[in-house]
Structures are given as C-alpha cells and as structure tokens.
Amino acid sequence: PNSVPRQRGIAIPQGISQHRFFEALDELREELGTQHVELNDKELRSGWYMEHPNTHDMMNIVEQEELVASAVVYPACTEDVVKIVRWANKYRIPIFPISMGRNLGYGGAAPRVRGSVTVDLGRRMNKILNIDPDDHTCLIEPGVSFYALFEEVQKKGYTHIWVDVPDLGGGSIVGNTVDRGVGYTPYGDHWACHSGLEVVLPTGEVIRTGMGALPGNNTWQTFPYGFGPYSDGIFSQSNFGIVTKMGMTLMPNPGGYESFMYTFQKEENLAPLIEIIRPLRITNILENVAQLRHCLQTLAVRGLPRTTYFGGHGPIPQSIIHEELEKMPIGDCTWVYYGMSYGPTHIRKYKLDIIDKEFKKIAGARKIDPTTLPKDEYFWSRDRIAAGIPDLEELLWVNWMPNGSHVAFSPVSPIKGKDAERLYELAKKRHAEAGIDLMPAFCVGLREMHLIVEIVFDSKDAEMRKKAEICLRDMIDDAAALGYGEYRTHLVLMDQVAATYSWNDNALMKFNERLKDSLDPNGILAPGRCGIWPERYRGHGWEM
Ligand code: ADP
Fold this sequence. Notes:
Elements: E1 3-4, H1 18-32, E2 37-39, E3 44-45, E4 71-73, H2 78-91, E5 95-98, E6 117-120, E7 128-132, E8 137-140, H3 146-155, E9 161-162, H4 173-178, H5 190-193, E10 194-200, E11 206-208, E12 242-249, E13 251-252, E14 257-264, H6 270-282, E15 290-294, H7 295-300, H8 318-327, E16 335-342, H9 345-359, E17 366-368, H10 379-386, E18 404-409, E19 411-414, H11 417-434, E20 440-444, E21 448-458, H12 462-481, E22 485-486, H13 494-500, H14 503-519
Parallel strand pairs: 4-6, 5-6
Antiparallel strand pairs: 1-3, 2-4, 7-8, 8-12, 9-13, 10-11, 10-12, 14-16, 14-17, 15-16, 15-20, 18-21, 19-21, 19-22, 20-21
The structure holds adenosine-5'-diphosphate.
Adenosine-5'-diphosphate (ADP) binds at residues 97-103, 109, 121, 142, 171-172, 174-176, 178-179, 242-243, 526, 529.
C-alpha cells in the first residue's frame, strides 16, 4: 500500500485548541474504552478497495490532506452512538458518520470538514439482526456488507431469497442505501427497497421510523410508511441523523435467469437505441437497470494500463480502441449493452425474443453468444451482479492509470435519444478540452436514466487531478444549463451540485437549512454534506 507522510500535522477540528481536543478525546476514551478511540496522527495510507483507509479519501481529487479526520471512534451499539453525539455537542466537535467508508468515487471515508471525528459504525456494529425467510426481509446494522448478507443467506440455505448487489459488493448496505446507490436486479433501487430506520438524531434522541415507532409491531420491515409524515427521506443524502439500523426487503429467487449482451457499431446508434430501450424498460421487458456502455470501458476493464495501448498524451485515439476490440471476443463496436432476463425458460424466451427483434432494428446490432466467451470475460462479472452475487471485477478499470482513482459525473435525464445525445456531446467536449479519456455508461432505471461518466485519474498527479476537477465542474454547469442535475456526487462537488437545485430562489436549500438548524443546533453532524451547512458554518468560506 502507498503511504504519504503528513505535511500538515494532525487535523485538529476548527474552533477548539489542540490541548482541549485531546482532553475531550480522553473523556470519550473513558466512555467507550481506550481502544475504541484512535487519533489519526499516522501517515495516510491508500491500500486497495478491501483494505481502504477510514480516515481520508484514498482516491483524492483535491490535495490528500485537505479532507482528513482528526480521530476515528468505534461505537458498538446505538447507546455508544448516543454518547458520541452528546460528547460532540458538549465540545462542538464536528463528527462524520460512515458505515464502511467504501464510497469510492464519491469521497470514500473522508469527512467534508477537515479535522472531523469519523464515527466508524461498521467496524463493531456489523450484525445481521434478522432475516425473515417468509416475508423476504432483513434488519441489519451499518457494518453489514453486501458480501456478508449474501453469505449469511447462503449459509442459512435460503435459496429462495436473493440479495441485490451494486457494482462492488464490499461496501455497506446501509451506506449505499442512504447515499441512494443502485444495484442491478429488479430490486436495484436500494432506497425504494428499504423499510424502516433507526436513527440517532444530532441531539442524541433515538427514533424509529415507519411501523418501528409502534411498540410491539411486527411490520417494521414490511410496511415502510407507518402513520404521519414519511420521515425516512430526510435521512438519505443528508446530515440530519445517524442511521444505526435499517430494514431491507429482499427479492424472491425468480426461478431462472439469463444474461445477454448486444454490441452496436456506430456512435450515432446511441439516440435510436435509447428510443428502443425506453418502452421496453417501462413495460418491464427489460427487467433490470439496463447498462449501455461505451466500448472503451470494455477495453479498460480488462485491467491493463492505458500505456499498453497508447503512450501519447490526450485522449486515446478511437482507432486504437477499435483495433484492440477487434482482437477481443466481443469484436469491434462502439456501444455494449448488458442485460438480464429473469424467470423460467419459457418466460425468458418470450421477453428475449421481443428484445432481439427490437434491438436488431439498429443496423449492425449483434447478439453475442455467451457460450463463446471465456470465463474471465467481463460479461460474466455483469452476469453475477445481475444475479445478486457480489463481485469486485468492476474495480479493474481503475488500473487504466497509475495510482488509479475514479470520480463520477452522474446526471439524470429522461430515457430519450435527444437527452442521451446532449449529455454525451457535452461530456465529449469537456473531456477533449481536458485531455481525458471518456468512459460513459447509461444506466436506465424505470423512467429515467443516469449517465455515469467515470473519470479515471492518477491521484498522485496534481496536474491531472486539477484537470479532472475542472472537467467535472464544467460538466456540472453545462448539464445544469440544459436542465440536468446529478443524482449523487463526490464530497468536493456537493456545494456546486446542491446550488444547481435552485428553483424559486434556492427554496429547497433554505428548507434543508431550516431543518438542519432545528435538528442540529450546534452544527456537529457532518457539516457541509450534500451542500447543507449548519448556521455556525454558513457564509464563513467553507463552500468549495
Ligand atoms: P459504503 O461502505 O457503502 O461505501 P459509506 O459508509 O462510505 O458506504 O457511506 C456513504 C456515505 O453515506 C458516508 O460518507 C456518509 O456520509 C453516509 N452514511 C453512511 N452510513 C451512514 C449512517 N449509518 N448514517 C448516516 N449517514 C451515513
């Protein structure tokens, strides 16, 4: 693992002296046990995905020491979280909760405010509290990863239950869900599939949402709404509470599945293809989050560095990409579609025949026969993920660059050809200006699509980092000018993205700020996350 010696010393939180901060930590050690409070005074290590640091973003887009924790604390239970929150209020120390901190591409484990104390929930609060095999639900703590839940379901022999997994299975289910991440089975919208939260509020009260508020209930995980205002929403992509338990609905085994892949030859196939995808997706003939990827990603995910193919500066020439694809099992193309059909054979056949007929309307469309693909072909990784089997192969494309890091631009649009084209063109233009390789993927939800553009960069190369940041910021502004907004973003870009949601003189942000000030009067919980700053910080130059 790579280590960086510290230049700036321990990141003491603003507004408190080092001496007083150390005294405060001693007090917390007495409450939680010495071994559960760690000062972050060591060099910053990177490691790889499964050994990621919990003190900073190992895929930093700004200077490495800008967003680092002063200390990390490890609660064992909800009561410990309450103690930590009360302690933070007493000393007005900013705290930043993470579940497992594998939110790579969006800030990893880093806090938004330098010197925050990271509350690492995942290390000790990692229990699967319940799996109900009849209701197909579970109740979990923040430290339960997609792998852990999958393995437990297997161990219990619940072959009738599936777990939906995102591209990388090592992350926390709670972390991914509260950040509104997605997976690739019909249960891919994790937030929509959760049912019930337990939350520690910034002032230390503990609430349960939905049916959880009713003592003795047995429907917390089966009916998400309960009675009265539906409060769960304010605890996703926010800084209004710390989620300590979450219920999740689980998918029934569909009784069979079959992945398929199509390739399309020309760049200009994009718009007509999106027009074909929309009705198929809305009517559920295409049953999972459909992915249409640019072929460069297919090349990059082989895991070889870019220099294998091209030693020059600026974007890799398209001609080289096409020559390389020609040598690969999938052959030359510009767009690759990955999908899956669920159910028994005769049901799949009905849907797959329709898809084939529609996709083949694009001249040059090819269905790739999976039996011709070697075991290590990326297709099989997509196959596992869409079947709810956690996987890590998606990580391989970060090898495209030395010290390979990634950060995403993820605007939402209608599933329409002209929207896809506009977003693709603006990304192309800004990537060309910045001299960065463009790797777009369109992920089609039920009535909208996210364009996910992952910029792969060398995090040790300050110049390249700057170029990546400028490219991202330009794309966010360009997209907003056309009416597109991001569904999720990196810590460093949260202020900018939040500011694009400005309708009616920023009325939504004013509402969020009012909630923040009332729920968190001392402004201790994750200040600045998702662009929401507590009163104490507002207008003091914290925005980036
Ligand atoms: P993962 O392990 O899935 O990558 P993280 O733990 O990095 O997820 O969570 C992503 C982000 O969501 C964190 O940076 C944090 O801001 C927020 N978050 C994660 N877990 C919680 C939680 N239990 N309560 C409140 N916010 C959380």
